[in-house]
C-alpha cells in the first residue's frame, strides 16, 4: 500500500510500478556456461546492406536484442531468419557456427546489443575459415532461393 503520508514527512512516495514494469522477452537454457565465465555486453551497428561479421563462433552463450532495423541471423543447423527491432535472439556458443548477423536492409542501419558469457582466456569471437566451412557444409540448413 502506498505511503500516503510521504509528502508530509519529506520522503518520496514508494512506487508500485516496478511490480508490473517487467516484460520477459526470452528465456533460454544454454547447454553450458564456461567455468569462470565473464559477462560482456556490447552494441553492434552495421550500415545499410552490410553483411556483418564473417562466419564465426563464440566461446560461450550469447543473448541479444535488436534495437533498430533488421538483422539477417543464421546459426548452424537452423534456417536463416530476419530479426526485427524489438525482437530477441540467442545462440549456445561453443562449437556452433554463427553464419550471419548482417543488416537485412539496404536503407537503414541495424543496431543490436548482445550479452555474452565468455570463456576466460579465449577470444569472445573466433572466425571460421573456408576449409572448416566446407567440412561442415552438411550441418548448414538449406537456404532460401
Give an overview in words:
- A hairpin with a 5-residue loop joins strand 4 (70-75) and strand 5 (81-84).
- A 4-stranded antiparallel beta sheet has the order 1-8-3-6, with no helix packed on it. Strands 5-4-7 form a 3-stranded antiparallel beta sheet, with no helix packed on it.
- The chain has one domain (29-137): Jelly Rolls, CATH 2.60.120.
- It has 145 residues and is mainly beta.
- The model has no long low-confidence stretch (mean pLDDT 90).
- It has helices spanning 6-9, 130-135; strands at residues 38-46, 56-57, 62-68, 70-75, 81-84, 88-91, 98-103, 110-118, 126-127.
- The Cα radius of gyration reads 20 Å
- Mean pLDDT over all positions: 90
Largest sheet: 4 strands, antiparallel
CATH architectural name: Sandwich
CATH superfamily: Jelly Rolls
Number of helices: 2
Features:
145 residues, Jelly Rolls, mainly beta, 3-stranded antiparallel sheet
Brief account:
Helix content is 7%, strand content 34%.
Write the layout of secondary structure elements.
Elements: H1 6-9, E1 38-46, E2 56-57, E3 62-68, E4 70-75, E5 81-84, E6 88-91, E7 98-103, E8 110-118, E9 126-127, H2 130-135
Antiparallel strand pairs: 1-8, 2-9, 3-6, 3-8, 4-5, 4-7
Amino acid at each position: 500500500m502506498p505511503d500516503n503520508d510521504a509528502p508530509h514527512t519529506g520522503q518520496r512516495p514508494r512506487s508500485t510500478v516496478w511490480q508490473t514494469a517487467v516484460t520477459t522477452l526470452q528465456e533460454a537454457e544454454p547447454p553450458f556456461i564456461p567455468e569462470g565465465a565473464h559477462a560482456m555486453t556490447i552494441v553492434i551497428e552495421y550500415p545499410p546492406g552490410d553483411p556483418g561479421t564473417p562466419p564465426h563462433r563464440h566461446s560461450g552463450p550469447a543473448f541479444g536484442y535488436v534495437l533498430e532495423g533488421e538483422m539477417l541471423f543464421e546459426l548452424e543447423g537452423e534456417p536463416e531468419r530476419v530479426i526485427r527491432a524489438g525482437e530477441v535472439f540467442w545462440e549456445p556458443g561453443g562449437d556452433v557456427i554463427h553464419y550471419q548477423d548482417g543488416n537485412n536492409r539496404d536503407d537503414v542501419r541495424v543496431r543490436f546489443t548482445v550479452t555474452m558469457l565468455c570463456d576466460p582466456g579465449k577470444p569472445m569471437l573466433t572466425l571460421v575459415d573456408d576449409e572448416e566451412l566446407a567440412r561442415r557444409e552438411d550441418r548448414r540448413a538449406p537456404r532460401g532461393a
